[in-house]
Design brief:
Elements: H1 7-37, H2 39-50, E1 51-56, E2 63-64, E3 70-82, H3 90-101, H4 105-112, E4 119-125, H5 127-136, E5 141-150, H6 158-161, E6 163-164, E7 170-172, H7 173-177, H8 179-182, E8 187-193, E9 199-201, E10 213-216, H9 220-236, E11 241-248, E12 254-260, H10 277-280, H11 290-300, E13 308-310, E14 314-317, E15 320-323, E16 330-332, H12 333-339, H13 342-352, H14 354-363, H15 390-397, H16 406-417, E17 421-422, E18 428-432, E19 438-440, E20 447-448, H17 452-464, E21 486-496, E22 501-515, E23 522-529, H18 538-541, H19 543-556, H20 563-569, H21 586-596, E24 600-604, E25 607-613, E26 619-624
Parallel strand pairs: 2-10, 24-26
Antiparallel strand pairs: 1-8, 2-3, 3-4, 3-5, 6-7, 8-9, 10-18, 11-12, 11-23, 13-16, 14-15, 17-20, 18-19, 21-22, 22-23, 25-26
Helix pairs in contact: 3-4, 9-19, 11-13, 11-14, 11-17, 12-17, 13-15
Length: 625
């Protein structure tokens, strides 16, 4: 008993103490339940609420040309995204974003009105657009950086390089073929979020690991020369399209693969036109095929270069007639190549026989994919010999009834130039990851397709195609500045699938050649589809492309030529120390000239397309966009 304290007060005190004790006991029990019984569950919930996993996208690896110059690179770009749950006024925010981005307010309102935590508003925006969005400080709207694919050479080799989509996945060309190696490894880390859910990155965030670097055999300078010459031919001959391939003899390296029309992978509006015609299109090649049917006959020993045939302009095989474009009473095997006689090629093939002709063409790689590192490659069509009639043997010998890709022809021609040794072509020299480990390097083991003697005999005959005189070769009007070359013209009527006949007014003009003739360094194949100008023969339409590319490429590669041509082009012996500026941009040409202490004069802008050494020793450079 407490003296002086009324009983009622004491009762109230006891009751209050009891309530407090019970309350504290309940709190203690609840705390026990939260921290002990259900502790793991609530810790996980708290972690999910306040911690997040942040993933940093990895940039794709670079694609470089043979000299290490960039063809495809990744660079940071800014993108706009939103957390719709944090947007305070959907309609007003949509209107503001539409004004900032130039978009449709209704579409933006639909995006912002959803019950999502993340939605892209617009990706890869210009820096000034990203700055305006940041300055607007719109609730729930954020600006983030992510890798974007750039193609600094623009349309140069665009069909070969291909492109990657907005998410960094290769969709065609090298970007698709090497996608797994080009794709980097994203970096992930744990981060804390504040009360509004905004990410606060934790310390120690590791950088994403970029993809491996792909080194191509393509040389930007040779590619530029080839594209320029091909585009000129397609335009001047009002052709539908064109393709040209430059292959290094003895290695199988593709130095250039040009397709016209070209396309810029940076430009979404042009992407539908991108087509790597060197591997995805198969054609009936026409007379270019005589190189390989005659080589097969020489190698089998059924003819020699001096074996003579009666020609007289046509050959009747059952109800069919093989015609020549020129009349020759008699021709040797060498003359058949020089004059491009269909009748002569047919008679040689019939003497060889269908089985040996088929086997000879197959050894050169026709009817099978080359295995080049490009998607969509076609094998062409070389039917089984068992189904060939005599007219088929005669037609296939001069390039009708067989389809081939330009790359197949280039590899086969290169085998003639390499003493009869075939090497599979490749466009990738190596793939190297960030620590220098080689992930891929092509193997091009040589295999013999014809004897060295046969290859040399073919080289002599192909060189005669450029002969002038009373019985000129089909390339007699061509002049390859500074070099003797070997080659073969081709002119084929195109097959019309609707009428199931060969069209009288639609042609494929082609040229396949080797340069220089005495020691081939490059094989060049040119095909121009449906020229509609005054000329349509291969020697007049595709031949000039070969002549331009062969001369320019050999000079660029430093291959010594013959006196007159070298002096005309500025490559005189006393000026050889200057080297070649062909293909260089203005800034690079000036830099190289300074390094070599060479005086230069520049006219025009863009890339160097021609050079000449003046009497005073000054190298005059002509540039063209």
């Amino acid at each position: 008993m407490t003296p002086g304290v009324p009983r009622a007060a004491r009762v109230r005190a006891y009751l209050t103490g009891l309530v407090i004790a019970v309350g504290l006991g309940g709190v203690a029990m609840r705390a026990w339940a939260l921290q002990v019984d259900d502790g793991e569950r609530y810790r996980a919930l708290a972690d999910r609420q306040h911690a997040s996993r942040v993933e940093i996208p990895a940039p794709r690896g670079d694609v470089l040309d043979a000299q290490g110059r960039p063809l495809a690179v990744s660079a940071d770009a800014e993108s706009i995204w939103a957390n719709p749950r944090e947007v305070r006024d959907v309609a007003a925010t949509a209107d503001q974003l539409a004004a900032l981005l130039g978009g449709d307010a209704q579409l933006l309102e639909a995006k912002l009105g959803g019950d999502h935590k993340f939605v892209w508003i617009e990706r890869h925006v210009a820096p000034e657009v990203a700055r305006r969005v940041r300055d607007a400080k719109l609730a729930g709207i954020e600006v983030a950086r992510e890798p974007r694919r750039w193609y600094p050479a623009r349309s140069l080799a665009g069909a070969v390089i291909g492109r990657a989509d907005i998410d960094g996945n290769g969709v065609d060309g090298i970007e698709l073929a090497m996608n797994d190696m080009l794709t980097g490894r994203a970096s992930a880390t744990r981060a804390l979020r504040d009360a509004r859910g905004r990410t606060m990155l934790a310390e120690g965030l590791a950088d994403a690991e970029p993809g491996a670097t792909v080194h191509l055999s393509i040389d930007r300078s040779i590619q530029a020369m080839t594209e320029d010459a091909l585009a000129t031919a397609v335009t001047s001959n009002q052709a539908k399209s064109g393709v040209a391939v430059v292959l290094e003899v003895g290695t199988g390296r593709v130095l250039a693969a040009a397709s016209t029309p070209a396309y810029d992978p940076n430009d979404a509006s042009e992407r539908a036109t991108g087509r790597d015609r060197a591997v995805v299109d198969a054609y009936e090649p026409g007379s270019v095929m005589k190189i390989f049917s005659v080589a097969a006959a020489l190698d089998a020993g059924v003819v020699t270069p001096d074996t003579e045939f009666e020609i007289k302009g046509e050959l009747r095989i059952g109800p069919n007639v093989v015609h020549d474009h020129e009349f020759d009473a008699y021709l040797t095997v060498g003359g058949i190549i020089k004059r491009s006689s269909n009748v002569g090629a047919a008679k040689i093939a019939l003497r060889l026989g269908r089985d040996k002709l088929h086997d000879g063409l197959a050894r050169f790689g026709f009817g099978a994919k080359t295995g080049v590192e490009l998607p969509g490659e076609r094998s062409g069509n070389l039917r089984e010999a068992a189904h060939w009639r005599d007219i088929d043997v005669a037609s296939i010998a001069h390039g009708i009834g067989i389809t081939v890709t330009p790359l197949q022809v280039a590899a086969a021609v290169a085998a003639i130039g390499d003493h009869g040794m075939y090497r599979a072509p490749h466009v990738v020299d190596s793939v190297i990851d960030g620590d220098g480990t080689v992930l891929y390097r092509p193997e091009s083991p040589a295999r013999r397709v014809v004897s060295e003697q046969t290859a040399q005999q073919m080289m002599t005959m192909l060189e005669s195609v450029f002969d002038k005189g009373p019985q000129p070769g089909t390339a007699s009007e061509l002049h390859v500045d500074g070099y003797r070359c070997a080659g073969k013209t081709g002119t084929a009527h195109k097959y019309d699938a609707e009428t199931k006949t060969y069209a009288n007014d639609r042609y494929l003009a082609s040229f396949a050649g080797l340069a220089p003739a005495d020691h081939p360094r490059i094989a060049v194949v040119v095909m121009v589809d449906e020229p509609s100008g005054a000329d349509y023969y291969g020697g007049k339409v595709a031949g000039p492309v070969f002549a331009t590319v062969a001369s320019a490429a050999l000079k660029y590669l430093g291959v010594r030529g013959e006196g007159a041509g070298l002096q005309a082009s500025g490559f005189r012996p006393e000026a050889e120390a200057a080297g070649s500026f062909i293909g260089l941009g203005m800034a690079k040409a000036i830099e190289v000239a300074r390094e070599k202490h060479v005086a230069i004069e520049i006219s025009g802008s863009g890339r160097v397309v021609a050079q000449e050494v003046g009497a005073n020793g000054v190298v005059r450079l002509k540039l063209k966009m």
